Structure formats: C-alpha cells, structure tokens
Amino acid sequence: MTKEHGTRLKLAACFLLLACFCAAFAAVGEIEYASAELAESYECATSDEAADVRAEIIVEAPEKTYVYRDKKMVAPDHTVYEQIERRNINASLEEKIKTVDKCLAAGAEWREALRYCFPLLPAFVQKVKAETDLEPKDSEIDFRPQCRPMFRISRSECGRSVDEKRLYQDIYLALRKDCKARVTLKPQTIEPAVTVEDNIKLTKKISAFSTSFSTSAEGRKNNIRLALSKINGAVVKPGEEFSFNGRVGARTEKNGFSLAKIIVAGEYTDGVGGGVCQASTTLYNAALTAGMKVTCVRNHTILPSYVPPSLDAMVNSGASDLRFINPYETPVFIKAECVSDTARIMFYGAELPHVIKTVSRVLSRTEVPQDKELIDSDGKFTTPDTPAGTRVRVSYGHAGVKSEAYLRYFSRSGKLLREEKIRTDAYSQTQGVVAVKP
C-alpha cells in the first residue's frame, strides 16, 4: 500500500466517524443556528467564549447575506472527543488551515477538505445554494384565436446557479487572508431554453383553406359553424395525432347539432349533423398544405360540390374520422372561423422551408344519369295549391368519377421540388330526383 493510498483511507474513515459525530451532536441539540431578517448565522456551540479567535465567513448573495461562525464544539462522548482532537475541529484557525492544506495535498476535493475540520460548513453552503439557485423561466405561448392579438407570448427569465466547488474555493482563499472571510457570491447565469424570439418564430401562418356554404340551409350552416367553433384554438404538439371526431364530439341534438342533409348509401337523406363534412374537408385541405401527416381520411360516396375530387374528407360519429399527426418538432396552432358564409381554417407554426399545393386529377367521368321522377302523393315537396304536373327538384344527379390527389412541393422561389400522390378515389354515379305534383 502506498503512502498516498493510506492517507486516503484514513481520510475516508475520519469522514465516516465525523458523520456519526454530527448526527449525535445534532441529537443532543448542541448545534445552534442564529438568524436575522437579512442575515443567517451558522454557529457551533462553545464551552469557552473567551477562546482564541474563530473563523467567521460572510457570504454576500444577490438577495441575502449569510454568516457562518465557527465556534468550539462540545463532544457528547469520548469517541467524538477523539475525533474533534484528531481532526483539529477545535484548533486555531491557523491549525485548521494547515489541516485543510494537508487534505488538499492528499487529493481531497475542496468540499471534503474543508468539511474535515469545519464539519458544519457543508450545511451552510447547501443553504446558500438552495436559496440562491433559481430555475430559468421559458417564454410561453398563449394561443387565443378569438382575441387580438391571437398570440400572447410571455417574457423569458434567466436563472442562476451557485458553483458549489468555486464557493468552497473562495471561502478557503478568504480564510487564508483573514479570520473574518468575506465572499461575494457570483452565481452562474442560466439562459432559458425558449426565448420570446424563439416563440415568435412559431406563430407564422403556414397554411389556409376556405370553402363556401352560402347556398346551404340554415340547419347545415349551423352544423358547419358549430364544428368550426370546436376546432378553433386547437394546439397539436410535436408528434401528437389530431382527431376530428375526438375534437368535435358526437353529432347529436344534445350537443347542438341540427337536422340537415347527409349522404347514406349513396343518397341524400335528413340526419343530425349534416354539413359537418364540409368542416372536416376544409380542415383536411388546410392540414395537407401545412405538411401534416394524414393518418385517416375517407372520401364520400357522392362527389361533394365544395372541393375538387379526392380532396374531400367524409366523417361521421362512428368509424369514419379525419386524423393527422404533427410531424414537426414544434407545435402547430389551428384557427377555424366562419366569415359570412365561408368556412376558413388556418394553421400557424414555424415557417416551412417550402410551399405545398394540392392537385386533383380526374381519371374518368361518366355522364350524369337521367333524373328519377317521384310522384309527390303525400305533398312532401309540393303544397295543395301547387298545380298538377308541377316538377320540383329534390336533388341533383352526379356523374361517376375516378380521381387522384397529389401534393406538389415548391421552393420559396417557385421551383417544383417534387410531386407525391396521396390518394385514389371513386365516386358513385347517382340519379337526380324530381318530385311531380299528381
């Protein structure tokens, strides 16, 4: 065993005994803490106030001053007394500094070297650090699409951290100069992870899409407006999946939805929530041009009139949903609104490196079939005053369509970067319906 290794073992054993000593000492209430409004004092109990001059350490922190006074300790038993003597805990400051120097020369860290003969100093340093350290505060985004401005961005604040090793070193150097050591604490500044400038970059408009519902009945208009109001203000976090059904909820009268035309088995019929598909379709197109990764979308059986083929998104309260994932490392914010009779959805987030556009391509189209006539014997579509033979349009016929949809990526300068096919669909051919007054 080398001399240095032996010295290290002796130090370790002494530290272990010292821990036992401190526990016993605290148990009998021999450690005295004195505090004031702007200063705190750590003192060791003493049996002789007239003893030689002891160390006093004053640490001036940014918002508070801390004082540590080193006084002689009274041992509760013989074993602890031996440790006090061996470690020079009650020795003069000069002897204690020499002891610290020996510990440092043996390879001890600053904390352990000072703790060897200043056993209460670590608790004092931890107190200073705990009360001085401050976590940085990141800037945050409060998205309020119904207000102006839409984005309220809080200010970030720097944090601070006490370098414990540096503090022990400064205390040691100050004690070598004077028994009344004064240390000015200079905590390290911790920059916030997210600044105001960072968050401002996340509030750029990255896509927008609109559809018109000016010719819709009031029930259908109500449903579109209600669905958009539920989408408005959504925040999709990085990697998170957005669900239209999860956000909008069940289309029931209890939830505020009205009766309107819906498509069932290729035909129009009355149902609660009719028109909600126009809201989901508007959202779908805005999501595509915002670069969202669509994970679930279905086409209608009949081609809707408000978007080109293969760019619709049929939803219902059952199995059909519109879902997409935010593929970016930053959140996206969704604003949905109705301006007059126009549904409009916008995505906000970090500016994209490219521009995304949708393209619809029709592969084939059939002729629109002849209308189907319906004798209105029950007067469902006509009135008693309606002349016999009057024809009333109930629904329009639709051609059968096969189509594809593509995404085209352009550079900021307008150069086509690539084209990607995203779906292929088939829409049914349907007859229009005309009611005839008998």
Structure write-up:
This protein has about 450 residues and is an alpha+beta fold. It folds into 2 domains: about 5-140 and about 160-190, no CATH class; about 200-435, no CATH class. About 25% of the residues lie in helices and about 30% in strands. The chain has 10 helices and 24 strands. The chain has helices spanning about 5-25, 80-85, 95-105, 110-115, 120-130, 165-175, 195-200, 220-230, 245-250, 275-290; strands spanning about 30-35, 40-45, 55-60, 65-70, 140-145, 150-155, 160, 180-185, 190, 205-210, 235, 240-245, 260-265, 265-270, 295, 325, 330-340, 340-350, 355-365, 370-375, 390-395, 400-410, 415-425, 435. It has a 5-stranded mixed β-sheet. A 4-stranded antiparallel β-sheet has the order 10-18-17-11. The chain has a 3-stranded antiparallel β-sheet with strand order 12-16-15. The longest helix has 25 residues, at about 5-25. The model is unreliable at about 15-40 and about 45-50 (pLDDT under 50).
Question: Topology of this structure?
Answer:
Elements: H1 3-27, E1 31-35, E2 39-44, E3 56-60, E4 65-69, H2 78-86, H3 93-105, H4 110-117, H5 121-132, E5 141-143, E6 151-153, E7 159-161, H6 164-177, E8 180-184, E9 188-190, H7 196-200, E10 204-212, H8 218-231, E11 235-236, E12 241-243, H9 244-248, E13 259-264, E14 267-272, H10 276-289, E15 293-296, E16 323-325, E17 332-339, E18 342-349, E19 355-365, E20 372-375, E21 391-395, E22 401-410, E23 416-427, E24 433-436
Parallel strand pairs: 2-4, 3-8, 20-24
Antiparallel strand pairs: 1-2, 3-4, 5-6, 7-9, 10-18, 11-17, 12-16, 13-14, 15-16, 17-18, 19-22, 21-24, 22-23
Helix pairs in contact: 3-4, 8-10
